[in-house]
Each structure stands twice: as C-alpha cells, then as structure tokens.
Amino acid sequence: MEMAYLIETIIKIVVVMLVFSALAGIGTYFERKILAFMQRRLGPMNVGPYGVLQFGADAIKLFTKEDIVPTNVVAPIFKIAPVITAATAFIAAAAIPFLPSFTMFGYEVHPIIADINIGILYILGVMGVGLYGPLLGGMASANKFALLSAARGAAVFISYEVVTGLSILAPIMMVGSLSLIDFNEYQAGGITSWIVWSQPVAFILFWIAAFAETGRTPFHLIANDHEIIDGFGTEYSGMRWGLFFIGEYANMFFISFMIPILFLGGYGDGSFLGAMALLGKMSFFFFFFLWTRAAWPDVRPDQLMMLCWKILMPVAVLNILVTAIVMM
Amino acid sequence: MKDEQFNNRNITNEYFLVDIEDYPTQPWDKFKRVVKRTFRAELFVGLWVVMREMLRFDIHTVSYPEEKMPIGPRYRAIHEMKRLWESDTERCIGCGLCEKICVANCIRIDTKIDKNSRKEVSEYSINLGRCIYCGYCAEVCPELAITHGGRYENASEQREHFTIYEDMLTPLDKMKTASQEEFEGFGAITPHEDERVKKTPLAY
Questions:
Q1: Whether residue B167 sits in one domain with residue B99
Q2: Which of A7, B168, B179, B190 has the highest local Cβ count within 10 Å?
Q3: B124 in any annotated domain
Q4: Which pTM does this prediction carry?
C-alpha cells in the first residue's frame, strides 16, 4: 500500500468525521429554527446573534455533564451502545461519494473514502448495525420505557429494512452495480437520465424507508417523547446521550446524500455546478426531514408494521417484477 | 363598536357545523374510504400549511424579559398604597377593614392617635408569602387607599416576603409629576379589549 494513499485516506476520514460532527451540531440549530418558524416561534435567540452559537452551548453542556451509569444497568453494554450508533453512522459514510473528484495542488482527490464495488450493500448493512445502539442501550438500561423502545426498535427494524432492500433492488438491476460511483455515472447524462423517472416507485419507497431508518417524525416511535419519554435515551445523560444525538443527525445527513446519489443524478457530470447541485439536493432532503416533523403526526408501531409489510413490501416486490419484465 | 352587533346573537356565517361523515360499515365503503384518503393527499396539505406559516413569518413569540404583554387593570399583583391627589397625604385612614377581611391573615395594621388627634397608621405590613391575592382588601377599602398594582415579578430569599407601608406608598415625587396610577375600579376592562371581543352565539 502506498504511503500517499494511506495519508490521503486518513485525511479524508478526519475531514468527514469533523465536518459531519459539526454538521450534526449545526443541524440541530437548523432543526430548532425551522420548526420554530413553522410554528410561529422564534427558536433560539439568545446565544450569539440569532442564536447561532446555541449548538456550542449545547456541546459545552453535554461535554461537562456528569457521566451517570445508573444502578442495575448492564454497564458494559450500556456504555458501548451510544458508540455503536455514532460509529456506524460514520462508518457507513465511507462508501458515499460526497463530491465529484477534483484536483488540489496537482493531486487528484476522490471525496470518497473507499470506492468499494458493493457500496450500497455496505452502507445498508452498516446503517442496519446502527440500530443495535437503541436496541442494546434500551435493553441494558433497566428502565421499562427504554425496554419498550428497544422492542419497538426491533419491530421497526425488521419492517423497514425489508422495504429498503427491496426498493433499492430495482435500480440496482438497471445499473448493474452496487457502487454509488457507478450509480452516479449511470445518471451523468443530465436530468432526463435520472433514475427517478424510470423508478419513481422505488424512489418513494426508499424515501419512506429512509424516515424509518433515521427514526424521523412519521416513524419517530423508537424514541417517542410523548409516549415513552425518550425511549432508549431515558437513562442516558451527558455525552453518551450526545453520541446518540450525533449518530441520529449524521445518519440524516448521510441518508440525505444517499437519496440524490441513488435516484436524482448525484453530482452529475462532476463539474462544479454538479457538486453544488448535489449539495442542494442534499439540503432539500435534510430540510424535508425537518419539514415533516413540523407537519405530520406519528404513526403507531403496529401502523408502521402494517404499512411496511402489507403495503410497501408488496409494492416493492411488484416494482422489481415489473422492472425485470421490462428489462427482458 | 355598536351595541346592535352584540344584540344580534344568532349564528352568522362565521360559525358553521363541521361536516363529518358516518363511519363506513360495508367492506366496499371502507375500501372507498381508504382510496379516498390515500389519494386526497392530505399529508401534503399539512406540509403546505406549515410552509405557508414559515413563509408568512408571522412570529407570535414575546421575548419575555425584553418585551412584556400588557396586563389588565384588574390584575391583582403586589399591593399599592395611594395618596390623595389634592393634598398628597395618605389615603389610608387606619380603619383596619383590610386586616379584618383578609382571608389569609396576612395583613397586620397598627394605628395611633397623632398630634392632630387623627388616627394614623404606625405599622402596616403584608406577608406576601401568605397573601393569596384575592383582592378583598382592595375591595373593602372605603378610601380606595389599598389597591393592587401590576408588579408581578417577585423574588425573595425566603417564603415570608414582607412588604411594608412605606414600600407600598406612592412616593411623593411621583405625586409631584402627577403620575400616580389610579385604580380604574372593579369591572375595568383591559385596554383595546373592544377590538378583541367576540360574541357568544346563542343558537347551535
């Protein structure tokens, strides 16, 4: 292995870690502001101009809080669970091409940590492992609400993961590759070659499943505040809880990158405009997560399972069938 | 605003009954309801409503310590002792009715005869930790001397937070600038309340 490649990879890892940790913090600021505006409130206003430093104050609070491991919890699992959520979110980002490759100081940089040929499988798999965070954290917490949340997490997990996998199968059949770079190149011919036009059903299904994957509002039932307090997060405090939080927001950002790359052309032909377009599309999908949180109610766990198993999964299977017939 | 607007109390077009359909019982009707609900795209109506509010940017927040809502003249907060407009002397005649009527027993008044052989208040204190702000003292006062003011932000190091006569009494320099606020009386309405009042419909 070349030294230059090693150094480049390490730098890229550090950059992705830092940028997305910071984005997770700034994401909370945007979430508060946008939710507030949609509810005719002002949101954070006092820390810094228009409250922009609010996430800094939150970070100070989270980092300096006492680290409490309550009595009766299974301490090793309790401690490792938030790390699983945060770590898997970042590990999954390794196969996402955030920007087209560009030349810097006469050196061509590929803004993807590892262009593996099974990228999508890898991302879905690692994001799936991320659910062990809520699951283990909830079961180890010695708290009935956390336990309920863990049970819900397991039920939700097996429901949406089927839909995610099946919905993405039809585009994979068309592209003939599991690499996100290949997906991008397949759609490089402009708006008309986007997969969303040939696979609208898969797009909608994947989008719906993304809400379940990140646990955002219509499917925010793993940590539903008004039913089961904070679910798996009930017993957590300080930075351990903060890790869950970072994991959730990083996951939102990564899914928001995934959807445009898979269905909406990604960064297109790799020009500067294409890169900006990818960031714009990502911002829209991130905004949509906040938008639905202001507008939509939560579903019950049984409703989510009914939706996933009785409606979305048959539709996904039919979609694969139709795609296969058309492709023949 | 005219009186006749309030005298006509029948439902106008502003009030209407919400049209609620019966629940379907037949499977076919249930299916039709599912299809209707699915394709009516009500979720997008919800999205539109919050987006409209965001774009309209009609913020209702009162940033409290900097901005405060106006309170009504009937609001019952910390008591005030008023002075006479003509002579700037204290209105309180030391009758002790407020002490008698106080349901929480929080008022203590002590009087003496002064050199003009008039009754004078020598000690007057209200235990604000006991006071329930019922307003009986202000209601019973024959001279409109003790009234409730608008100071509702109180903090104290102990539960028994006393206020004494000198603290409640309108300062003399305030009398010189004639800025003593008069109690508008029981039944006084909040400023600009006319614009906000709505009539109660009689016929449903």
A1: yes
A2: B168
A3: yes
A4: 0.78
Same domain assignment for residues B84 and B49: no
Same domain (yes/no): B98, B146: yes
Q: Would the CB atoms of A40 and B43 count as touching at under 8 Å? A: no
* pLDDT of B13 strictly over 70: no
On whether residue B70 sits in a domain, the answer given is no
Question: Is residue B199 in some structural domain?
Answer: no
- Chain A hits for B50, CB-CB cut-off 8 Å, are 38-39, 291, 294-295
Residue B199: pLDDT above 60? yes
Residues of A in contact with B60 (CB under 8 A): 40-41
Helix (H, G, I), strand (E, B) or coil at A65: coil
- Best probe of the B interface among A34, A40, A289, A299, by most B CBs < 10 A, is A40
One domain for residues B53 and B140: no
- Chain B interface includes A295 (CB < 8 A): yes
Residues from chain A that touch B61, judged by Cβ atoms under 8 A, are 40-42
B126 and B96 belong to one structural domain: yes
- Same structural domain for residues B102 and B45? no
Task: Report DSSP state, residue A188.
Answer: T
What are the tens digits of pLDDT across the range A162-196?
888 899 888 888 888 888 888 888 888 777 888 88
Whether residue B89 is contained in a domain is answered as yes
What are the Cα distances from residue A196, in Å, to A193, A204, A286?
Answer: 9, 9, 18
Q: How far is CA A288 from CA A90, A193, A225, A296, in A?
A: 22, 24, 21, 11
| Of A96, A95, A213, A118, nearest in space to A175 by CA | A118
The answer on B83 and B56 residing in a single domain is no
Residues constituting chain B: 204
The alpha carbon of A90 is separated from its chain's Cα centroid by a whole number of angstroms, namely 10
Domain containing residue B119: 79-176
- Cβ contact (<8 Å) for A291 and B57? no
Q: Do B59 and A45 touch (CB under 8 A)?
A: no
Contact B59 A42 (CB under 8 A): yes
Band (pLDDT 50/70/90 cuts) for residue B165 is: confident
Shared domain check, B162 and B103:
yes
Distance CA A145, CA B146 (A): 54
Question: What are the average pLDDT values for consecutive 10-residue runs of chain A, which has 328 residues?
Answer: 81 86 85 90 86 87 87 88 88 82 73 80 87 88 88 86 88 86 81 83 90 83 79 85 86 88 81 83 90 87 86 90 88
CB contact under 8 A, B60 and A41: yes
Q: How would DSSP label each residue in A197-211? A: HH-HHHHHHHHHHHH
In chain B, the number of structural domains is: 2
Name which of B54, B61, B63 is nearest A38 (Cβ-Cβ).
B54
